[in-house]
C-alpha cells in the first residue's frame, strides 16, 4: 500500500503533497500552500480594484480550446475525489460499519454502496 502522502495531491495544481510545504484537506479535496498563496493574491488584487462582479462560471470568458484544455483537470479532480471517498468508505468498513449505514449516509441503497465501494481484491 503506497504511503498516503504520495497519494495526496492538491486538487487545484495537482502537485503531490510531498512536493509542497503544506496541504490542507477539505471534503474529498486538498489545497496546497502555493495555491492558497495564489488565491490570496487574487483576493488582494480584487480588493484593490474593488471588483464586485463575480467571474463565475469560468467558461463565460473561455474559448472552446481553453475549455477543452480545462476538461482533463476537472476529470483529474473527480478521480481524486472518487479515490478519496473510496478510502473513507474502506476505513469505515475496517470499523465494521454496515453497507446499509454507508449507503444511507450517501443517499443510496445498501446494494448500490456495496457495488460501488466493495474491495476489488
Ligand atoms: Zn496547489
Automatic annotation (TrEMBL):
SUPFAM superfamilies the record matches: Glucocorticoid receptor-like (DNA-binding domain) (SSF57716)
Binding annotation for Zn(2+): 10, 13, 32, 35
Keywords: Chaperone, Metal-binding, Zinc
KW Metal-binding (keyword) present: yes
Residues covered by the ClpX-type ZB domain: 1-51
Family according to the record: Belongs to the ClpX chaperone family.
Protein name: ClpX C4-type zinc finger
Amino acid at each position: 500500500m503506497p504511503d498516503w502522502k504520495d497519494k495526496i495531491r492538491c486538487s487545484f495544481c495537482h502537485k503531490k503533497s510531498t512536493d509542497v510545504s503544506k496541504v490542507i484537506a477539505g471534503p474529498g479535496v486538498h489545497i496546497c500552500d502555493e495555491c492558497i498563496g495564489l488565491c490570496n493574491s487574487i483576493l488582494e488584487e480584487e480588493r484593490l480594484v474593488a471588483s464586485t462582479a463575480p467571474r463565475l462560471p469560468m467558461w463565460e470568458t473561455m474559448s472552446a480550446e481553453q475549455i477543452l484544455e480545462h476538461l482533463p483537470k476537472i476529470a483529474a479532480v473527480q478521480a481524486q475525489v472518487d479515490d478519496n471517498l473510496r478510502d473513507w468508505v474502506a476505513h469505515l468498513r475496517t470499523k465494521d460499519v454496515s453497507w446499509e449505514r454507508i449507503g444511507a449516509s450517501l443517499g443510496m441503497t445498501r446494494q448500490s454502496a456495496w457495488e460501488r465501494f466493495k474491495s476489488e481484491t
